[in-house]
């Protein structure tokens, strides 16, 4: 079971500056949540984040990354950049460590550098489509491929332990309600037992006014991560 640290999170809100309601609602809620538990989260609001910020957010060990904007955040960090996290830091596959290299350092044997769990709250951020979907009439000599693809799978392939995304388009106010309920339930450091992210996603569906449209859209890919409790953090 993978754990994330509740004090180790980064977020991007309304990067295209056209979701004023989401920005206002989420920023106020995040300020309240982090102040309550004295967490220091870093975020970018109302503008496209730098590539350095995104790479730091995604490669943070035991981290959490929250995205509230359009889609799966492709305009902030493209699928090509996400898949670039498959390469070891500091070089290409030919110059850096890879699967075939012999090394005593276990971290050198895996090029998957994306370590954070992701909450992608945009429309269709978790949707998977056929790789042949854009081929209306493929040539007869071109073999069809059946595996699905999407932003969520790119993050998983790059090493993310868990990705929450929406299977279809959602309304901003309802998905904001869902996101806030999810964060409060999942990240609450009090209590005896940690709840897994899938458990909290299932519970948060009920706060949506359109439960069977918006509430049913979020899904979880990956492993059921949990958040560390205050007692665990204080003992370190």
Give a written overview of the molecule:
There is one protein chain. The chain is of the alpha/beta class and 236 residues long. The chain has 7 helices and 10 strands. The strands form 3 sheets. A 6-stranded mixed sheet has the order 3-2-4-5-8-9, sandwiched between helices. A two-stranded parallel sheet has the order 1-10. Helix 1 links the parallel strand 2 and strand 3. About 8% of the residues have low confidence.
What's the quick description here?
With 236 residues, the chain is of the alpha/beta class. It is 29% helix and 15% strand. It contains seven helices and ten strands.
Task: Give keywords.
single chain; 236 residues; alpha/beta; six-stranded mixed sheet; 7 helices; 29% helix; globular
Strand order of the largest sheet: 3-2-4-5-8-9
Helix/strand structural class: alpha/beta
Name the poorly predicted regions: 90-107
Order of helices and strands: EEHEHEHEEEHEHHEEH
Shape: globular
What percent of the residues sit in helical stretches (DSSP H or I)? 25-40%
Estimate the mean pLDDT confidence. 85
- Biggest sheet features: 6 strands, mixed
What is the CA-atom radius of gyration, in angstroms? 19 Å
Distance between the termini: 19 Å
DSSP helical segment count: 7
Q: Using DSSP, what is the number of strands?
A: 10
């Amino acid at each position: 079971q993978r754990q994330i640290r509740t004090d180790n999170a980064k977020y991007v809100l309304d990067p295209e500056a056209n979701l004023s309601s989401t920005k206002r609602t989420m920023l106020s809620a995040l300020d309240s949540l982090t102040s309550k538990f004295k967490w220091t989260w870093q975020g970018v609001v109302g503008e496209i984040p730098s590539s350095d910020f995104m790479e730091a957010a995604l490669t943070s060990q035991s981290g959490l990354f929250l995205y509230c904007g359009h889609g799966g955040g492709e305009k902030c960090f493209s699928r090509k950049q996400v898949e670039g996290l498959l390469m070891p830091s500091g070089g290409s596959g030919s110059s850096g460590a890879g699967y075939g290299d012999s090394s005593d350092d276990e971290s050198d044997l895996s090029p998957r550098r994306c370590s954070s769990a992701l909450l992608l709250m945009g429309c269709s951020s978790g949707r998977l489509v056929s790789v042949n979907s854009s081929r209306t009439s493929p040539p007869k000599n071109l073999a069809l491929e059946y595996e699905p693809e999407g932003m969520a799978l790119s993050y998983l392939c790059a090493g993310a332990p868990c990705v929450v995304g929406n299977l279809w388009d959602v309304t901003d106010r309802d998905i904001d309600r869902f996101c806030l309920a999810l964060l409060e339930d999942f990240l609450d450091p009090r209590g005896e037992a940690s709840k897994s992210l899938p458990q909290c996603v299932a519970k948060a569906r009920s706060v949506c006014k359109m439960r069977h449209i918006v509430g049913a859209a979020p899904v979880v890919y990956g492993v059921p991560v949990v958040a560390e409790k205050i007692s665990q953090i204080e003992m370190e």
